[in-house]
Amino acid sequence: MGCILTFVEQRGGTPRKASLEALSQARRLAQGAGWNVCAVLVGHGVRDKAADLGAWGAQTVYVADDEKFALFSAEGYAAAIAAATEACPPSAILMAATITGKDLSGRLAARLGTGCLPDVVAVTLVGAKIQAVRPVYSGKALATVEGCSAKPLVVTLRPNVFLAEGGGAAAQVVDLPPVAAKIRSKVVEVKAAEGGELDVAEADIIVSGGRGIKAAENFALIRSLAEPLGAAVGASRAVVDAGWIPHKHQVGQTGKVVSPSLYIACGISGAIQHLAGMSSSKVIVAINKDPEAPIFKVADYGIVGDLFQVIPPMVEEIKKLKQE
Amino acid sequence: MKCCVLVTYVPDTASIIKIGSAGNRIDEGGIKWIISPYDEFALEEAIRIKEARGGEVTVITYAPERGSTGLRECLARGADHAVHVVGGEATFGDAYAIARVLAAAVEKSGPFDLILCGVKGVGSDQSLVGAMVAELLDLPHISGVVKLELGDDALTAQRDVEGGTEVFTSPLPCLLAAHKGLNEPRYPSLKGIMAAKKVPIQTYKPADLGLDEAELAGGGATTRWVKLELPPAKAGGTILKGEEDPAAAARELVRLLREEAKAI
Lengths: 324, 264
Known about the structure:
The complex is a heterodimer.
Chain A: E1 3-8, E2 10-11, E3 14-15, H1 17-33, E4 36-43, E5 60-65, H2 74-87, E6 92-96, H3 99-112, E7 116-120, E8 122-126, E9 129-136, E10 141-147, E11 153-157, E12 172-175, E13 186-192, E14 205-209, H4 219-229, E15 232-235, H5 237-241, E16 262-266, H6 272-278, E17 283-288, H7 295-298, E18 301-304, H8 307-323
Parallel strand pairs in A: 1-4, 1-6, 4-5, 5-12, 6-11, 7-11, 14-15, 14-16, 16-17, 17-18
Antiparallel strand pairs in A: 2-3, 8-9, 9-10
Helix pairs in contact in A: 2-3, 4-8
Chain B: E1 2-7, E2 9-11, E3 33-35, H1 37-53, E4 56-63, H2 67-77, E5 81-86, H3 95-109, E6 114-118, H4 129-136, E7 141-150, E8 154-161, E9 164-171, E10 174-178, H5 190-196, E11 201-204, H6 213-217, E12 223-229, E13 238-241, H7 246-259
Parallel strand pairs in B: 1-4, 1-6, 4-5, 5-11, 6-10, 7-10
Antiparallel strand pairs in B: 2-3, 7-8, 8-9
Helix pairs in contact in B: 2-5, 3-4
């Protein structure tokens, strides 16, 4: 019987949401094919939580719990997942296309002598073959891609796209034998973002500011809208290049490609490179003075007007709603 | 210090993408080709390392004929040597095949203390080749580098992750995949452009590296593009006029987001 193995990323023992999305999708694929659902957990002090993944559909959870996995290393984590593939062995390996997943997937695939379908937004089984859809040219086109490797393929799933749904019993936990890993490059320190700021790549709602906000200090206005929505703050390339906000906030072709459920673009005209980074958002809102701005062509809702006059009453109205 | 930079030549990010007649590739008519923007950060870092500590910079690409134009641009910016593995049309999009070719080219051209590349090739957007090359060459790698401190036999690098920053250490040799923020790439100087014209480009076919491209794209292929489509066009949105009464438009927008879109 076939099996799908999902690498579940965790932070402090808690699985990441994007990994639960991947595990849920693995279960949906496995159900259709009559395959098993396996997961692999790598870290230090993570074993206690392994059985909990049963609630997300995992039947067997392989655990590599070792001090040397306390902090991330692509070499160490790839060795641990490779050890799980020997125990399992899977027909495909899924993981979330987070920074860690994107880093790890190439290393793991090459180690296994196979290919990878990265950052997919849809994945199906056609017989035993994996077919997926992925945005390319930063979302300006969609490619249907398939695996043709004789070996199990690695597939990474774009966060915020697949539904995470619970269901299932406790999983069987299997300890992997000690993993021999040559670890040379490794994380030695993790610095949390100041003020625990939400990252655009993970956010469900993003409020972005562009040149139309006129000055760096006016990001306070963008933040005032983001705050009651629990949203992350995004930015166009123009304002990042102007030094108004750090690059990690940039959405677009040379920034982050995002697909939140709500994207609010304030004072962003919508250069093709920016649209490429956010056009797969579920609901797009544009606020811009220029009725001809390209952003309105992809917007589901919009206001043609001065953002300095539009945003404050929006904030007031949203705060009222949140109090209800 | 000997640095190697892996570069790829991609459609300009401002390009309008059209689907080619084969149905699984873009229409290359009218496309302007550029060095992938993230590769520019990798090249700039290598040139800065050479300027600060001495050494040489070798750029390597695996591309059709047009790739040589990209290599000339890298030479004009300050690279010393250029290696062009001519091919890549058949293996397009198969990161593992591409990584095997590049790894073989690095081995043939090295040894190097540091290998740099961009965090992703803009276009196929895979973010795979760097880590694959490192694994194939049995080297450590760090992906998404935004800050680098280089010692004689080790380095410290930082990358941004969701909600924070990770600090890495690694011995040399090592492969680094560069991200925006690492540096500010320079433009080629006129002098550099003139000098670059005189530098011979070392060309190879994959067969010269002991690899059979037909096999890499045939029986040895791992992934392929079956179909390429434009995203579905969006229906016209509800655009409110907010010039005269911005507050009323703001309230209406919030109502629509709440009641119609159910987005807040």
